């Protein structure tokens, strides 16, 4: 008896998966509108995107979006990077609420 559904995955990595969707600012804008209570008080709004220190703010409940950012950060042009490097990279470019300290 099998309890898990087996999904065929690319041997190359998640970025090469046919169903992988690249994170987009339009999607982030929609997620921010869905989670307005998570917006920090020191925010700025430019182009309809809430930002902290000029970095787009990602709601902590946007798990699928954050997961895709982590995949891109981990599987970047420099190969597979460790957790600390990926976290630091994402913190440079995004304000991700509830990201592990």
Question: What is the element layout, followed by pairings?
Answer:
Elements: H1 25-34, E1 44-46, E2 49-52, E3 55-58, H2 63-74, H3 83-93, E4 95-96
Parallel strand pairs: 3-4
Antiparallel strand pairs: 1-2, 2-3
Helix pairs in contact: 2-3
What does this structure look like?
The model has no long low-confidence stretch (mean pLDDT 75). A hairpin with a 2-residue loop joins strand 2 (49-52) and strand 3. Helices cover 33% and strands 13% of the residues. The protein is of the alpha+beta class and 101 residues long. The chain has a domain at 66-101. Strands 1-2-3-4 form a 4-stranded mixed sheet.
Poorly predicted tracts of residues: none
- Strand elements, count: 4
Distance between the termini: 41 Å
Task: Give me the secondary-structure category.
Answer: alpha+beta
Instruction: Give the biggest beta sheet.
Output: 4 strands, mixed
- Number of helical regions: 3
Q: SSE string, helix = H, strand = E?
A: HEEEHHE
Shape: globular
Average pLDDT number: 75
Kindly provide the radius of gyration, computed on alpha-carbon positions and rounded to a whole number of angstroms: 15 Å
User: How big a fraction of the residues is strand?
Assistant: 5-15%
* Major β-sheet strand ordering: 1-2-3-4
State the share of residues found in helices, binned by percent. Answer: 25-40%
